[in-house]
Inverse folding.
């Protein structure tokens, strides 16, 4: 006799992936990667729509369910540093990669993949902008006995074609009700508070179904009252009239919301820290000690010791992460 209640609970858990905002896309990735015939799955969509978050979530789920023994992840970026990609991939798989030369590192990775044929490995290649030569990285290609699969994320559908992804899954915008739920969750709104129901719906609409934008705006408005919400709505609507130079039309909405979240930071030190972090290369893993040195030199905090500066800076970084302005490496 099937335990219907237990089965329903498992189904509901799957449907609620990422707090309910990606049931269809999450399921599609999950099912595609389980198929024996699948080698590379392509996940594409505009910036801020949640590709990285979904890829990490699916990877963790598949590992927990023992579909894969290991999950390796590397960020490729617009101008890929192959040595960095190799290092991230090896580190995430728990492998030692001591070679300095790119080709030697690739040979070592191929050897380690060959020695791990008894393990099922999922490789997540995040933020791919152009066709990527997997052999250059050290990922085996054309080995019929391999037990690895790739989940690739990109903004550009042609990348999925050039990398021969099958299937190619487009990650779309959230439905209005999903976006509203996500906004209320991150802002801590009590759905019983009738004063904020209408204005929160309008604010969610201004975020255009983009999870990153919704999280940033919701975090900025956490604990705020009706007047602050109304002011926020006014600012978001006014911001639509201004085009951000150097930003493509498809990315304007998410940058507009991130700018709003930046303006709502508590103090000038937080804003300065964010701007400093933005000077580092894309996807750079910023060391806290480096930031401490800059903070002391720029005299951000009036603190009597470096340890005090470190403590205050750690609090600032937590605030920036909570505002979705910084992400964990």
């Amino acid at each position: 006799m099937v335990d219907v209640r237990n089965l329903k609970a498992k189904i509901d858990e799957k449907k609620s992936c990422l707090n309910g905002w990606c049931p269809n896309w999450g399921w599609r990735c999950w099912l595609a990667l389980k198929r024996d015939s699948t080698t590379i799955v392509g996940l594409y969509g505009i910036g801020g729509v949640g590709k990285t978050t979904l890829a990490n979530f699916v990877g963790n789920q598949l590992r927990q369910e023992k579909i894969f023994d290991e999950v390796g992840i590397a960020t490729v970026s617009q101008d890929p540093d192959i040595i960095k990609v190799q290092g991230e991939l090896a580190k995430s798989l728990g492998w030692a990669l001591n070679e300095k030369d790119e080709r030697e590192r690739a040979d070592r990775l191929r050897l380690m993949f060959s020695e791990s044929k008894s393990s099922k490995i999922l490789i997540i290649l995040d933020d791919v902008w152009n066709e990527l030569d997997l052999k250059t990285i050290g990922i085996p290609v054309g080995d019929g006995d391999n037990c690895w699969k790739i989940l690739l994320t990109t903004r550009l559908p042609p990348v999925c074609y050039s990398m021969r992804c099958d299937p190619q899954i487009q990650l779309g915008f959230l439905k209005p009700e999903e976006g509203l739920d996500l906004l209320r969750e991150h802002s801590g709104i009590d759905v019983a508070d009738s004063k904020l129901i209408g204005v929160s719906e309008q604010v969610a609409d201004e975020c255009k179904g983009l999870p990153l934008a919704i999280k940033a705006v919701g975090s900025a408005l956490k604990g705020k009252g009706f007047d602050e919400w109304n002011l926020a709505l006014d600012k978001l609507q006014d911001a639509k009239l201004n085009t951000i130079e150097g930003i493509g039309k498809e990315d304007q909405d998410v940058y507009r919301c991130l700018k709003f979240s930046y303006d709502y930071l508590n103090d000038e030190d937080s804003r300065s820290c964010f701007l400093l972090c933005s000077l580092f290369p894309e996807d750079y893993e910023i060391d806290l000690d480096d930031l401490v040195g800059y903070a002391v030199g720029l005299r951000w905090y009036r603190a009597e010791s470096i340890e005090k500066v470190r403590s205050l800076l750690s609090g600032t970084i937590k605030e920036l992460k909570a505002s979705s302005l910084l992400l964990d490496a």
Summary: The chain has two domains: 4-170, 176-322. Residues 176-322 form one domain.
